[in-house]
Write a structure and sequence with these properties.
Order of helices and strands: HHHEHHEH
Radius of gyration: 13 Å
InterPro entries: EF-hand-dom_pair
Structural class: mainly alpha
Number of domains: 1
Length: 105
């Protein structure tokens, strides 16, 4: 079920997000996914399956070990088709990890 949802999400992504998949470092991907999932779970304490986009900025700063500036974060939200009042569900979050990793220094 999870792979099918991720695959469906991938088909619907814009070019910038598809490019992120093409540039993945698969040797580190398992560790990256584990880290991102743990951070998502720490924010989604009630296990509702979604987080606010405001919380996403904190997760990205922690996961990427750098401050995500507001201008960068607005671009991320734009690329994801979200705004600052949106939420992101766990499946979307998982599918977007390769894109998030493009912001790693």
């Amino acid at each position: 079920m999870t792979v099918m949802c991720l695959d469906e999400n991938m088909v619907n992504q814009d070019n910038i997000l598809k490019q992120a998949y093409d540039n993945l470092d698969f040797s580190k991907l398992q560790d990256d996914i584990t880290h991102f999932v743990e951070l998502f779970g720490s924010v989604d304490r009630r296990q509702m399956g979604s987080i606010s986009t405001e919380s996403l900025q904190g997760i990205l700063s922690t996961a990427l070990d750098q401050e995500i500036k507001d201008s960068t974060y607005k671009q991320i939200l734009y690329d994801l088709g979200k705004d600052q009042n949106s939420s992101i569900d766990k499946m979307e979050f998982l599918a977007d990890i390769p894109y998030f990793l493009t912001y790693r220094n």
